[in-house]
Amino acid sequence: MAAVSVAPPASALRLEAAGATDIGTGRKHNEDSILLRPDLQLYLLADGAGGHNAGNVASALATTAVAHYFEERGRVPEGTPDFDAFGLAPEARALARAIQHANREILQISKTSERHQGMGTTVVAALFAAKSGLLHLGHLGDSRCYRLRHGHIEQLTHDHSLLNDVLEMRPDLDDAVLAKLPRHVVTQALGMADAVRPSVRTYDVLPGDRYLLCSDGLTETLEIDEIGEALMLEMSPEEHARLFIAMANERNAGDNIAAVVIDCAPAGDGKAKPRPAVRRRAPRVAAPPAPVIEASNPEIVLMPTDGDPYDAEDPTGNIRFVPAESANPEIRDALTGLVPKHGRAQAEAKKPKG
Q: CB of 58 within 8 A of CB of 105?
Protein backbone atom coordinates (compact mmCIF):
# COMPACT_ATOMS: atom_id res chain seq x y z
CA MET A 1 0.00 0.00 0.00
CA ALA A 2 1.23 3.46 -0.85
CA ALA A 3 -0.33 6.86 -0.22
CA VAL A 4 0.79 10.28 -1.39
CA SER A 5 -0.58 13.80 -1.74
CA VAL A 6 0.57 16.85 -3.63
CA ALA A 7 -0.35 20.53 -3.79
CA PRO A 8 1.78 22.20 -6.50
CA PRO A 9 2.38 25.93 -5.92
CA ALA A 10 -0.35 28.13 -7.38
CA SER A 11 -2.18 25.10 -8.75
CA ALA A 12 -5.93 25.14 -9.23
CA LEU A 13 -6.35 21.62 -7.83
CA ARG A 14 -4.96 19.54 -5.03
CA LEU A 15 -4.52 15.80 -5.61
CA GLU A 16 -4.50 13.05 -3.03
CA ALA A 17 -3.81 9.50 -4.18
CA ALA A 18 -3.19 5.99 -2.91
CA GLY A 19 -2.91 2.56 -4.47
CA ALA A 20 -2.56 -1.12 -3.71
CA THR A 21 -2.04 -4.45 -5.47
CA ASP A 22 -2.88 -7.96 -4.33
CA ILE A 23 -2.16 -11.45 -5.67
CA GLY A 24 -5.84 -12.39 -5.46
CA THR A 25 -7.17 -15.84 -4.62
CA GLY A 26 -6.43 -17.64 -7.88
CA ARG A 27 -2.84 -16.81 -8.89
CA LYS A 28 0.61 -17.84 -7.75
CA HIS A 29 2.37 -14.60 -8.80
CA ASN A 30 1.37 -10.95 -8.64
CA GLU A 31 1.91 -9.44 -12.10
CA ASP A 32 0.15 -6.11 -11.42
CA SER A 33 2.20 -2.96 -10.75
CA ILE A 34 1.30 0.59 -9.74
CA LEU A 35 3.28 3.82 -9.63
CA LEU A 36 2.42 7.03 -7.77
CA ARG A 37 4.51 10.06 -8.74
CA PRO A 38 2.99 13.18 -7.17
CA ASP A 39 6.03 15.22 -8.18
CA LEU A 40 5.12 14.53 -11.80
CA GLN A 41 1.36 14.45 -11.16
CA LEU A 42 1.55 11.03 -12.80
CA TYR A 43 -0.26 7.85 -11.72
CA LEU A 44 0.07 4.50 -13.51
CA LEU A 45 -1.19 0.95 -13.31
CA ALA A 46 -0.08 -2.04 -15.39
CA ASP A 47 -1.27 -5.66 -15.60
CA GLY A 48 1.45 -7.98 -16.90
CA ALA A 49 1.17 -11.24 -18.84
CA GLY A 50 3.52 -13.82 -20.22
CA GLY A 51 3.81 -16.61 -17.70
CA HIS A 52 7.00 -17.93 -16.10
CA ASN A 53 7.07 -14.87 -13.82
CA ALA A 54 7.73 -12.51 -16.77
CA GLY A 55 4.48 -10.57 -16.51
CA ASN A 56 5.59 -8.83 -13.33
CA VAL A 57 8.78 -7.69 -15.10
CA ALA A 58 6.77 -6.25 -18.00
CA SER A 59 4.35 -4.37 -15.75
CA ALA A 60 7.15 -2.96 -13.57
CA LEU A 61 9.06 -1.85 -16.67
CA ALA A 62 5.95 -0.15 -18.05
CA THR A 63 5.36 1.97 -14.98
CA THR A 64 8.99 2.97 -14.44
CA ALA A 65 9.72 3.62 -18.14
CA VAL A 66 6.82 6.07 -18.46
CA ALA A 67 7.98 7.88 -15.33
CA HIS A 68 11.61 7.93 -16.53
CA TYR A 69 10.50 9.51 -19.80
CA PHE A 70 9.12 12.52 -17.93
CA GLU A 71 12.03 12.58 -15.50
CA GLU A 72 14.50 12.90 -18.37
CA ARG A 73 12.51 15.23 -20.61
CA GLY A 74 10.39 17.04 -18.06
CA ARG A 75 6.84 18.20 -18.46
CA VAL A 76 5.77 20.56 -21.23
CA PRO A 77 7.55 23.93 -20.68
CA GLU A 78 5.83 26.60 -18.61
CA GLY A 79 3.69 28.89 -20.73
CA THR A 80 2.92 26.29 -23.41
CA PRO A 81 -0.74 26.54 -24.46
CA ASP A 82 -2.97 23.72 -23.21
CA PHE A 83 -3.89 22.90 -26.83
CA ASP A 84 -1.86 23.39 -30.00
CA ALA A 85 -2.91 24.63 -33.45
CA PHE A 86 -4.28 21.18 -34.26
CA GLY A 87 -6.52 21.11 -31.20
CA LEU A 88 -4.28 18.55 -29.49
CA ALA A 89 -2.91 18.82 -25.96
CA PRO A 90 0.94 18.85 -26.04
CA GLU A 91 1.06 16.93 -22.74
CA ALA A 92 -1.31 14.29 -24.11
CA ARG A 93 1.07 13.85 -27.03
CA ALA A 94 3.95 13.59 -24.58
CA LEU A 95 2.08 10.87 -22.68
CA ALA A 96 1.60 8.92 -25.91
CA ARG A 97 5.33 9.18 -26.59
CA ALA A 98 6.09 8.04 -23.05
CA ILE A 99 3.93 4.93 -23.51
CA GLN A 100 5.66 4.21 -26.81
CA HIS A 101 9.01 4.64 -25.03
CA ALA A 102 7.89 2.04 -22.47
CA ASN A 103 7.00 -0.33 -25.29
CA ARG A 104 10.52 -0.07 -26.72
CA GLU A 105 12.05 -0.71 -23.29
CA ILE A 106 9.97 -3.85 -22.79
CA LEU A 107 10.74 -5.12 -26.29
CA GLN A 108 14.45 -4.59 -25.72
CA ILE A 109 14.42 -6.69 -22.55
CA SER A 110 12.28 -9.42 -24.10
CA LYS A 111 14.63 -9.69 -27.10
CA THR A 112 17.80 -9.90 -25.01
CA SER A 113 16.51 -12.16 -22.22
CA GLU A 114 15.24 -15.63 -23.09
CA ARG A 115 13.25 -15.98 -19.87
CA HIS A 116 11.36 -12.77 -20.65
CA GLN A 117 10.55 -13.46 -24.30
CA GLY A 118 6.90 -12.89 -25.16
CA MET A 119 6.07 -10.84 -22.09
CA GLY A 120 3.57 -8.03 -22.34
CA THR A 121 1.48 -5.73 -20.20
CA THR A 122 -1.52 -3.46 -20.25
CA VAL A 123 -1.12 0.10 -18.98
CA VAL A 124 -3.37 2.93 -17.91
CA ALA A 125 -1.71 6.27 -17.08
CA ALA A 126 -3.23 9.44 -15.66
CA LEU A 127 -1.17 12.61 -16.15
CA PHE A 128 -2.70 15.61 -14.39
CA ALA A 129 -2.11 19.27 -15.18
CA ALA A 130 -3.49 20.61 -11.90
CA LYS A 131 -2.73 24.23 -12.76
CA SER A 132 -4.90 24.15 -15.90
CA GLY A 133 -7.41 21.64 -14.53
CA LEU A 134 -6.80 18.93 -17.13
CA LEU A 135 -6.34 15.17 -17.06
CA HIS A 136 -4.48 13.41 -19.87
CA LEU A 137 -5.41 9.74 -19.86
CA GLY A 138 -3.60 7.08 -21.89
CA HIS A 139 -4.08 3.33 -22.01
CA LEU A 140 -3.44 0.07 -23.84
CA GLY A 141 -5.39 -3.10 -23.07
CA ASP A 142 -8.20 -3.52 -20.56
CA SER A 143 -6.88 -1.80 -17.46
CA ARG A 144 -9.44 0.93 -16.88
CA CYS A 145 -10.09 4.40 -15.51
CA TYR A 146 -13.40 5.34 -13.88
CA ARG A 147 -14.52 8.81 -12.81
CA LEU A 148 -17.01 9.63 -10.07
CA ARG A 149 -18.46 13.12 -10.57
CA HIS A 150 -21.50 14.48 -8.75
CA GLY A 151 -22.57 10.97 -7.83
CA HIS A 152 -22.32 9.64 -11.40
CA ILE A 153 -19.85 6.87 -12.26
CA GLU A 154 -18.41 6.75 -15.77
CA GLN A 155 -15.84 4.53 -17.48
CA LEU A 156 -13.41 6.84 -19.30
CA THR A 157 -11.42 4.14 -21.12
CA HIS A 158 -12.58 1.73 -23.82
CA ASP A 159 -11.06 -1.75 -23.54
CA HIS A 160 -8.75 -2.89 -26.32
CA SER A 161 -10.30 -6.34 -26.10
CA LEU A 162 -11.01 -9.13 -28.54
CA LEU A 163 -14.75 -8.82 -27.99
CA ASN A 164 -14.79 -5.06 -28.56
CA ASP A 165 -12.60 -5.37 -31.66
CA VAL A 166 -14.84 -8.04 -33.13
CA LEU A 167 -17.98 -6.02 -32.41
CA GLU A 168 -16.46 -2.98 -34.12
CA MET A 169 -15.29 -4.91 -37.19
CA ARG A 170 -18.18 -7.39 -37.46
CA PRO A 171 -21.26 -5.89 -35.77
CA ASP A 172 -23.45 -8.29 -37.77
CA LEU A 173 -22.01 -11.41 -36.12
CA ASP A 174 -24.53 -13.70 -34.51
CA ASP A 175 -24.58 -13.75 -30.71
CA ALA A 176 -23.90 -17.49 -30.79
CA VAL A 177 -20.57 -16.80 -32.51
CA LEU A 178 -19.70 -14.02 -30.07
CA ALA A 179 -20.45 -16.32 -27.16
CA LYS A 180 -17.64 -18.65 -28.26
CA LEU A 181 -14.99 -15.94 -28.06
CA PRO A 182 -12.68 -15.96 -25.03
CA ARG A 183 -13.54 -13.22 -22.56
CA HIS A 184 -11.16 -10.71 -20.98
CA VAL A 185 -8.55 -11.12 -23.73
CA VAL A 186 -6.75 -7.99 -24.92
CA THR A 187 -5.63 -7.24 -28.46
CA GLN A 188 -3.23 -4.37 -27.70
CA ALA A 189 -0.49 -4.37 -25.09
CA LEU A 190 3.03 -3.13 -24.50
CA GLY A 191 5.77 -5.51 -25.63
CA MET A 192 3.75 -7.22 -28.36
CA ALA A 193 4.78 -5.23 -31.44
CA ASP A 194 7.41 -2.72 -32.56
CA ALA A 195 4.75 -0.02 -32.82
CA VAL A 196 1.82 0.56 -30.47
CA ARG A 197 -1.09 2.95 -30.74
CA PRO A 198 -2.19 4.00 -27.25
CA SER A 199 -5.55 5.62 -26.80
CA VAL A 200 -4.98 9.08 -25.28
CA ARG A 201 -7.68 11.59 -24.38
CA THR A 202 -7.86 14.84 -22.42
CA TYR A 203 -10.58 15.64 -19.86
CA ASP A 204 -11.47 18.63 -17.72
CA VAL A 205 -11.02 18.01 -14.00
CA LEU A 206 -13.45 19.46 -11.44
CA PRO A 207 -13.00 19.80 -7.69
CA GLY A 208 -14.72 16.83 -6.08
CA ASP A 209 -13.83 14.41 -8.88
CA ARG A 210 -12.63 10.99 -7.78
CA TYR A 211 -10.77 8.70 -10.20
CA LEU A 212 -10.09 4.96 -10.07
CA LEU A 213 -7.41 3.19 -12.09
CA CYS A 214 -7.82 -0.58 -11.89
CA SER A 215 -6.84 -3.90 -13.46
CA ASP A 216 -9.29 -6.49 -14.75
CA GLY A 217 -8.92 -8.47 -11.54
CA LEU A 218 -11.21 -5.85 -10.04
CA THR A 219 -13.57 -5.27 -12.96
CA GLU A 220 -14.15 -8.99 -13.47
CA THR A 221 -15.55 -9.24 -9.95
CA LEU A 222 -17.37 -5.92 -9.46
CA GLU A 223 -20.04 -4.29 -11.61
CA ILE A 224 -19.76 -0.59 -12.48
CA ASP A 225 -22.62 0.34 -10.14
CA GLU A 226 -20.87 -1.43 -7.27
CA ILE A 227 -17.67 0.45 -8.04
CA GLY A 228 -19.62 3.72 -8.04
CA GLU A 229 -21.32 2.98 -4.73
CA ALA A 230 -17.99 2.14 -3.13
CA LEU A 231 -16.35 5.32 -4.47
CA MET A 232 -19.16 7.41 -2.97
CA LEU A 233 -18.26 6.30 0.56
CA GLU A 234 -16.57 8.96 2.69
CA MET A 235 -13.09 7.44 2.77
CA SER A 236 -9.52 8.45 2.06
CA PRO A 237 -7.90 7.16 -1.16
CA GLU A 238 -5.89 4.69 0.93
CA GLU A 239 -9.05 3.35 2.58
CA HIS A 240 -10.74 3.11 -0.81
CA ALA A 241 -7.84 1.16 -2.33
CA ARG A 242 -7.94 -1.29 0.58
CA LEU A 243 -11.71 -1.59 0.27
CA PHE A 244 -11.54 -2.51 -3.43
CA ILE A 245 -8.92 -5.18 -2.77
CA ALA A 246 -11.05 -6.62 0.05
CA MET A 247 -14.24 -6.60 -2.05
CA ALA A 248 -12.56 -8.38 -4.96
CA ASN A 249 -10.99 -10.99 -2.68
CA GLU A 250 -14.32 -11.56 -0.99
CA ARG A 251 -15.63 -12.53 -4.43
CA ASN A 252 -12.60 -14.83 -4.76
CA ALA A 253 -11.01 -12.87 -7.58
CA GLY A 254 -9.31 -15.31 -9.91
CA ASP A 255 -6.73 -12.76 -11.03
CA ASN A 256 -4.36 -10.24 -9.49
CA ILE A 257 -6.02 -7.04 -8.29
CA ALA A 258 -4.73 -3.48 -8.51
CA ALA A 259 -6.39 -0.16 -7.68
CA VAL A 260 -5.25 3.46 -7.60
CA VAL A 261 -7.68 6.09 -6.26
CA ILE A 262 -7.15 9.82 -6.87
CA ASP A 263 -9.16 12.57 -5.19
CA CYS A 264 -9.29 16.13 -6.54
CA ALA A 265 -10.04 19.22 -4.45
CA PRO A 266 -9.45 22.97 -4.73
CA ALA A 267 -5.91 23.92 -3.76
CA GLY A 268 -5.66 24.97 -0.14
CA ASP A 269 -8.31 22.55 1.13
CA GLY A 270 -7.14 20.32 3.94
CA LYS A 271 -8.54 17.27 2.22
CA ALA A 272 -10.14 16.35 -1.07
CA LYS A 273 -13.89 16.01 -0.55
CA PRO A 274 -15.90 14.48 -3.39
CA ARG A 275 -19.45 15.78 -3.81
CA PRO A 276 -21.88 14.38 -3.00
CA ALA A 277 -20.63 11.91 -0.40
CA VAL A 278 -23.27 9.25 0.19
CA ARG A 279 -22.55 6.66 2.84
CA ARG A 280 -23.69 3.22 1.72
CA ARG A 281 -22.79 -0.31 2.65
CA ALA A 282 -20.38 -1.84 0.13
CA PRO A 283 -21.95 -4.88 -1.59
CA ARG A 284 -20.96 -8.24 -0.17
CA VAL A 285 -21.65 -11.42 -2.13
CA ALA A 286 -20.29 -14.84 -1.19
CA ALA A 287 -18.58 -16.88 -3.92
CA PRO A 288 -17.09 -20.37 -4.12
CA PRO A 289 -13.32 -20.68 -3.75
CA ALA A 290 -11.45 -19.88 -6.96
CA PRO A 291 -9.02 -22.54 -8.21
CA VAL A 292 -5.33 -21.71 -8.33
CA ILE A 293 -4.46 -21.20 -11.99
CA GLU A 294 -1.44 -23.28 -12.94
CA ALA A 295 -1.35 -22.17 -16.58
CA SER A 296 -2.68 -18.78 -17.62
CA ASN A 297 -5.78 -18.46 -19.73
CA PRO A 298 -5.14 -16.47 -22.89
CA GLU A 299 -4.49 -12.89 -21.81
CA ILE A 300 -3.32 -11.30 -25.08
CA VAL A 301 -4.36 -12.29 -28.60
CA LEU A 302 -2.78 -10.54 -31.59
CA MET A 303 -4.91 -11.01 -34.67
CA PRO A 304 -3.31 -10.96 -38.14
CA THR A 305 -3.82 -7.88 -40.30
CA ASP A 306 -5.08 -7.67 -43.87
CA GLY A 307 -1.55 -7.86 -45.23
CA ASP A 308 -0.58 -11.02 -43.36
CA PRO A 309 -0.46 -14.38 -45.15
CA TYR A 310 -3.43 -16.70 -44.97
CA ASP A 311 -3.18 -20.49 -44.86
CA ALA A 312 -6.44 -22.22 -45.73
CA GLU A 313 -5.23 -25.37 -43.96
CA ASP A 314 -4.44 -23.44 -40.76
CA PRO A 315 -6.36 -20.13 -40.83
CA THR A 316 -5.37 -19.23 -37.26
CA GLY A 317 -1.71 -20.19 -37.64
CA ASN A 318 -0.45 -16.60 -37.56
CA ILE A 319 -2.50 -15.52 -34.56
CA ARG A 320 -0.22 -14.84 -31.61
CA PHE A 321 -1.25 -15.94 -28.12
CA VAL A 322 0.27 -14.80 -24.80
CA PRO A 323 1.06 -16.99 -22.95
CA ALA A 324 1.85 -19.18 -25.97
CA GLU A 325 0.66 -22.38 -24.29
CA SER A 326 -2.85 -20.95 -23.95
CA ALA A 327 -3.65 -21.46 -27.66
CA ASN A 328 -5.96 -24.43 -27.23
CA PRO A 329 -8.03 -25.93 -30.11
CA GLU A 330 -11.33 -24.54 -28.79
CA ILE A 331 -10.07 -20.97 -28.90
CA ARG A 332 -8.49 -21.41 -32.32
CA ASP A 333 -11.78 -22.80 -33.62
CA ALA A 334 -13.70 -19.80 -32.25
CA LEU A 335 -11.32 -17.39 -34.01
CA THR A 336 -11.20 -19.16 -37.38
CA GLY A 337 -13.91 -17.04 -38.99
CA LEU A 338 -12.37 -13.78 -37.80
CA VAL A 339 -9.09 -13.88 -39.72
CA PRO A 340 -9.10 -10.90 -42.14
CA LYS A 341 -10.84 -11.57 -45.42
CA HIS A 342 -8.11 -9.85 -47.44
CA GLY A 343 -5.63 -12.58 -46.54
CA ARG A 344 -8.15 -15.22 -47.55
CA ALA A 345 -8.73 -13.50 -50.89
CA GLN A 346 -5.00 -13.53 -51.56
CA ALA A 347 -4.85 -17.23 -50.76
CA GLU A 348 -7.82 -17.98 -53.00
CA ALA A 349 -6.25 -16.00 -55.86
CA LYS A 350 -3.07 -18.09 -55.63
CA LYS A 351 -4.94 -21.39 -55.95
CA PRO A 352 -4.56 -23.05 -59.35
CA LYS A 353 -7.70 -22.76 -61.43
CA GLY A 354 -9.36 -25.65 -63.12
A: no
Q: What angle do CA 238, 241, 246 make, to 5 degrees?
A: 125
Task: Convert the pLDDT of each residue in 139-178 to its tens digit.
Answer: 999 999 999 999 999 999 999 988 888 888 778 778 887 7
What does the CA dihedral 137, 260, 165, 342 come to, rounded to 10 degrees? 70
Asked which of 241, 266, 291 is the last residue of a domain, the reply is: 266
Q: How many domains does the chain have?
A: 2
Q: Mention every residue, 6+ apart, whose C-beta is less than 8 A from residue 273.
A: 208, 263, 265
Q: Which amino acid is at 121?
A: T
* Residues 231, 327 share a domain: no
Q: Give the start-end residues of each E strand in 50-190.
A: 120-121, 123-129, 134-140, 144-149, 152-155
- Quote the domain boundaries for residue 56: 2-266
Same domain, 90 and 12: yes
Q: Is residue 294 domain-resident?
A: no
Q: Which residue, of 218, 248, 266, is where some domain finishes?
A: 266
Q: How far apart are CA 85 and CA 40, in angstroms?
A: 25
CA distance 218 to 216: 5
pLDDT at residue 218, as a whole number = 96
Q: Give the separation between CA 49 and CA 55, rounded to whole angstroms.
A: 4
Q: How far is CA 116 from each of CA 33, 48, 104, rounded to the nearest angstrom? A: 17, 12, 14
323 Cβ neighbours under 8 A, 6+ residues apart? 49, 50, 51, 52, 118, 295, 296, 298, 299
Residues 119, 300: contact at Cβ < 8 Å?
A: no
Average pLDDT score over the chain = 81
Domain co-membership, 256 together with 317:
no
